[in-house]
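Exercise 7.
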Amino acid sequence: MKVYKFGGASVKDAEGIRNLVKIVSGENENLVIVVSAFGKTTNALEIVLKAWLSGDEKYESLLNDIYASHLSVIIGLFEEGSEAKGKIDNSFALLNNYLLTSIKGEYDFEYDQIVSYGEIWSTIIVAEYLKMKFKDVVWCDIRDYLLTDDRYRDANVLWSESTKRVLDRFNFGNEKIYVTQGFIGGTHARKTTTLGREGSDYTAAILANMLDAECVVVWKDVPGILNADPKWFSDARKLDEISYKEAVEMSFSGAKVIHPKTIKPLHNKNIPLHVRSFLTLKEKGTVIKADPALKKILPVFIKKEDQILISILPKDFSFVMGDNLSRIFLSFITHGIKVNLVEASAVSIDVCVDDERAKVEVLIDDLSTEFAAVYNEKMEMLTIRHYTKDSIDLITKDREILIEQRTRSTVRFVVRSLTGL
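Solution. The predicted structure, written as tokens, is:
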């Protein structure tokens, strides 16, 4: 069996779902199909969430707009009176009732209860359309099978019990195709959790690991994994094959093609990951596997924007290492801030993180009794794998370098654009 994962761009409209069926039609193996929310639905639901939490009744019209977009897809795929519309109407009614009656909790908890609906809606519609074309198609609510802890917005999978449940449900006894959600899971208390943004790739890898899949195929709107974002470099080139290690290095540095957690479950069972384009089905895309056939090593350019560079200094000018360092990073963990880069000297430490301003300001306040801390905003973290002098000159032009780190195979810069000043 194989696991197919379709991202939001691939199922953003009725034509996209028809194309999904075309892709599935070319596969003779049993399939688990993991689907993300349609298009920009996750972003739209985040706006609904913020309006609702702030008491702005505008959330109702925003949610109606999301319903209208899903209804337009249904109209483009089904005859009037379809089961798909009834199921979608019921699901939207459940969310509406939740927003009207529930007591508002913490942001991360409410995020998972509300934003997770995007995947429920997309998979209902995809499954109902597939049922019109194939026999033995079943929709599964992954929240009943992929159990997690209650770390909302970044949940950890409870592997042992989840594996038992997944093997029991996705057994291909009477079914050939299972359609389920990426990105989400559930606790023992039946509360919805999410695995982090772009977590649908991770879901596909988890299921592939548990089910001993032949491979995972991630269908995207790019020809494969490129050596740079084409929006950054117009002449970006496709990488035909890369190793698991290379993929991990790229994702850690900020490459957006593959979710950072995706590789480990596949590497553990030597399951290859194919990244292919749903726009050009004849192209092979990129394969991530244990022993790739490297024809030529190209420099790989990765840009991580919207960074904050935090500088931390003990107020008593004591060494930053030892107990001070433990205290500092415990605070980062406590406030849920992921560290992208660290540069330490004897009496100070610089940390580059994503621009989650509210969390950063709470962190600085928490450290303020012992440390002086300031931050620079609008930073970029630039990484080159397999760098050359020319490649470094290319990306650092017109940028002020605040931090530079090098190993044999990787160079990384924290920079500020000079052209925007």
